[in-house]
Structure formats: structure tokens, C-alpha cells
């Protein structure tokens, strides 16, 4: 059921995207530092979104890597603490 719902949502988004591209098929000049390029507005918007996603991923990559490194250090520390606790439990008590 969950897959079917995802498929329906994906198809609705795809139909909306195709309709949007059809409504915005007019070519728009894009001026950049080294020249000019004329592309349909829908293509320009799609490229902008893709570029934004890529830049967002690169911006958060440092945070993801540092969090994973910290998680591995905490796991290592927890493993050592469990071993120490096991060793302490095996030592007989003196009365």
C-alpha cells in the first residue's frame, strides 16, 4: 500500500512538472560572465534546482562526516565501558 501511494504521488508530481514545462517553454536569455545562452524557462529552473540540491549536499557533507566520526568514537567508548563493566563484575567481592 505504501509503494502504491508513493507511485501515485510520484506520478502526480511528474504530471505537474510536465504541465509546468509545457506552460514555460518560452526561451529566455541567460547572461553569464563569459557569454549568453538561450534556454527554455523550465530548463533553467530545473538546472537551478539541481544546482541548489548539489550545493546543499556539499554544504552539509562536513556535518555528516563529523557526526559519523563522533558516533564511531562514542560506540568505541561504550564498547570499552561494557568490557570494563564485565571485568569488574567478574572480580569476586572481599568481605
Write a structural description.
There is one protein chain. The chain is an alpha+beta fold. It has one domain. Helix content is 76%, strand content 13%. The relative contact order is 0.05. The mean pLDDT is 89.
How would you concisely characterize the structure shown here?
By secondary structure, the protein is α+β, with helices and mostly antiparallel strands.
Primary descriptors:
95 residues, alpha+beta, two-stranded antiparallel ribbon, elongated
Number of domains: 1
Order of strands across the widest beta sheet? Answer: 1-2
Overall 3D geometry?
A: elongated
Structural class: alpha+beta
Q: How is the biggest beta sheet arranged?
A: 2 strands, antiparallel
Radius of gyration: 27 Å
- What number is the mean pLDDT? 89
User: How much of the polypeptide forms β-strand, as a percent range?
Assistant: 5-15%
Query: What is the count of β-strands?
Result: 2
SSE series: HEEH
Q: N- to C-terminal separation?
A: 64 Å
Quaternary class: single chain
Number of helices: 2
Helix content: over 70%
- Uncertain spans, ≥5 residues at pLDDT below 50? none
Task: Write the topology of this structure.
Layout lengths: L1 H22 L3 E6 L2 E6 H50 L5
Antiparallel strand pairs: 1-2
